[in-house]
Amino acid sequence: MIAKEILAQVRRIEIRTGKLVTETFGGQYLSVFKGRGMEFSEVREYSPGDDIRTLDWNVTARTGRPHVRRYQEERELTAVLACDMSGSQFFGTGAKLKQEVAAEIGAILAFAAMRNNDKVGLFLFTEEAELFIPPKKGRRHVLALIRDLLAFRPVKRGTAIGPCLDTLNRLLRRRGILFLLSDFQDDGYEKTLRQTARKHDLVPILIEDRRETEFPNLRAWLELEDPETSERLMVNAASPRTHALLARRAQERRERLESILKSAGLSAIRLKTDEPYVDPIVRFFNERAKRRR
Predict the structure, then answer these.
(1) Checking CA distances to 67, which of 35, 97, 109, 225 falls within 20 to 30 Å?
(2) What is the β-pairing status of strands 119-125 and 129-136?
(3) How many whole angstroms separate alpha carbon 117 and alpha carbon 144?
């Protein structure tokens, strides 16, 4: 994709997702993600009904009148989009690739964070960390992140979620919101996922394509290629046995992922490349808001 096409696509995404943030996600984002704690706001003279535990004895002694310290929630947050850029992300049998869906979701989350004056960063990974853009504020910064999400072409094709999350945990010293966008086609990352969930507010976002779990009903042999290893395999798409095998493996993978997420105290936002993504994200925000209340 040439630079002119990328810029045009960034602009289209900004218009489309900016409207969604304004009408749907902005306020919900604010309501479900907590600040880092309470920060000092001011000292003012005591009023009847104030909690006496907030009395500032130094100011009270100096002025001869009781004063209290006031605090407010520290709202500024740091959000990081951690996006899987392995070979399987550049697959899609509908109108969009999984990577393109990830870019749009990333844009929604980045604009929601920007609207709330939060910092946003980007971490792209395959079987190794490939790009890290430190969190910053501002529209120009967010647009640059979206451009990189669309234009970046990784060096590697495999997936190593565990080691890459270890790298990101070293890069991020303070607690933040971590959106992990991936198809989670990997193994051996359970321990690191649990560690990351303890350190950050971790939100897994699972992006799948329907043809990864369902074969089309064709009377033909299909040649399939693994986008990460380039291994090829001929399968009979007309065989019920083939369909049953694919369905069983998809179910096993789904159950394994559920077990991994549950062990870390997490649940994923599940998206498909051929389905609207607004409703699943709204459901996530609503359910999380209920839990917080």
Answers:
(1) 35
(2) antiparallel
(3) 17
- Is 257 in contact with 268 (CB distance < 8 Å)? yes
Is it the case that residue 121 has pLDDT exceeding 60?
yes
Amino acid present at 33:
F
| Residue in this structure with the two tokens 């853009």, named with its chain if needed | 133
pLDDT per residue as tens digits for the range 256-287: 999 999 999 999 999 999 999 988 988 888 88
Structural contact between residues 113 and 136, judged by C-beta atoms closer than 8 angstroms? no
Residue type, 207: I
Give the pLDDT confidence score for residue 40 in this predicted structure: 54
Give the total residue count for the chain: 293
- What is the band of 25 on the pLDDT scale with cuts at 50, 70, 90? confident
pLDDT at 82 over 60: yes
Would you list the domain boundaries of the chain?
3-33+77-292, 38-74
Q: What does the DSSP assignment read for 73-94?
A: EE---EEEEEEE-SGGGG--SS
For every residue of 186-207, which 3-state class applies, written as one string?
Answer: CCCCHHHHHHHHHHCEEEEEEE
Give the integer Cα–Cα distance in Å for 136 and 134.
Answer: 6
- The model's pTM: 0.84
Q: CA angle, corner 208, sides to 166 and 175, nearest 5?
A: 30
How far is Cα 65 from Cα 85, in angstroms, rounded to an integer? 62
Return d(Cα 13, Cα 82) in angstroms, integer: 19
pLDDT of residue 127: 97
The Cα–Cα gap between 209 and 202 comes to: 23
Under DSSP, is residue 270 helix (H, G, I), strand (E, B) or coil? strand
> Into which CATH architecture does domain 3-33+77-292 fall?
3-Layer(aba) Sandwich (3.40)
Q: Where on the phi/psi map is residue 287: left (φ > 0), alpha (ψ -120 to 50), or beta?
A: alpha
Q: Round to whole Å and give the CA distance between 137 and 284.
A: 25
Tell me if 154 sits within 8 A of 130, measured CB to CB.
yes
